[in-house]
Amino acid sequence: MANLIPVAKTVGSNRMVPTISIPYPLGDPNTSKEQQWKLRYHRVGVALDALETDIKEQTVFKVKI
Questions:
Q1: Structural domain includes residue 40
Q2: What is the rounded radius of gyration, in angstroms, for the C-alpha atoms of the chain?
Q3: Short-list 7, 47, 5, 49, CA closest to 26
Q4: Quick one: 39 exposed, middle or buried, by C-beta within 10 A (0-12, 13-18, 19+)?
Q5: In this structure, is residue 65 part of a structural domain?
Q6: Number of domains comprising the chain
Q7: Which of 1, 5, 19, 58 could cross-link 25 (Cys pair, CB 3.0–4.6 Å)?
Q8: Partners of residue 60 on adjacent β-strands
Q9: Residue 39: which of 6, 11, 65, 1 has the closest Cα?
Q10: Cα(55)–Cα(51) distance, rounded to whole angstroms?
Q11: pLDDT in tens, 29-64
């Protein structure tokens, strides 16, 4: 599984939210539906916070695992 944060930094993305992997950015199909929902809910919340945050440089927003 690979994460795209290094690629996002290279191309100059300002706001980055780490994900699980390229094929499954919002969940792991090997987990229960409830765990997938919780992960998706959390990641979308982090992404919305990232959009609301005033930034001056490239920022990787932390997510809980």
A1: yes
A2: 12
A3: 47
A4: buried
A5: no
A6: 1
A7: 19
A8: 16
A9: 65
A10: 9
A11: 888 989 888 888 988 999 999 999 999 999 999 887
